[in-house]
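Model it.
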Amino acid sequence: MPADSPGLHHVTSLVADAQANVDFYTGVLGLRLVKHTVNQKDMLTRHLFYGNASGEPGTVYTCFPYPNEVPARPGKPSVPAAMFAVPPGSLDFWRDRLDAHGTEYETRERLGETALRFSDPAGTTLELVGAASPVEPWTASVPDEHAIRGFHGVTTLPADPYATASTLETFGFSLDGEDGDRVRYRAPGDRATVVDILNRDAEYGREGVGSIQHVALRVPSRDDLMAYHDRLRERDLRVSRVRDRRYFESLYVRDPGGVLWELATETPGYTLDEPREKLGESFVLPEFFADDRDLIESQLPELET
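Modeled.
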């Protein structure tokens, strides 16, 4: 039997402009660029990873820049928002910081917490939620007492909310609360534990720039991945084989509600090919693309990190 997932591993979105993406996530949100590489399935597409000082699982937001991709159309099934955790007393700091950077936001109250909602340059909806977290923050541009502590969670909008809820229960999540049409599930870990399900009518959407492509959940080991692979197949779900993503191993499954989940191991992590103090400073490539470095660097637009 596989171990319950303790929570989110990473969240991945599609964006248009790589430079605007770097400037926003490092310059406005104050996250660390922990890995600068390429899509393992497309060596001419960058893959940018942001997180805390070490890129700890539960903190990492990854982005694929596709300059010519069409904009996303909101609707089901989708992951309409990612939530970052900030210290509960820091929301006034973040209001001032978002104002200073010309980022419009609105304030939401739900399930006993306050969230600042805004969009990144690609149109992806993000939220800063006042919530306690044990994560060590990256404090290069935001003071420690206000800095982002990784993810609080994500919001999902499935085509079938009950099917997505059942899949989350398979991963070890439990029902934690309801507020209107928002149903909260929570993992048993110490960080990045929240998945909200919106149980509401919506038109069918389209993946594109500004959409969150998938949500990855942590699992302790490769043995757990293999056990989940067998369990999901027994439930007639279409699950991928276990894949080596260099910094973790993982598998993918789209639940019957239409949400794409990835299950990912917590090791070996992002310090595999760069020391912790140098994370994100070099353009790194997986070994199978190493001989193509000159070609790759000549084709990708310049990026200032």
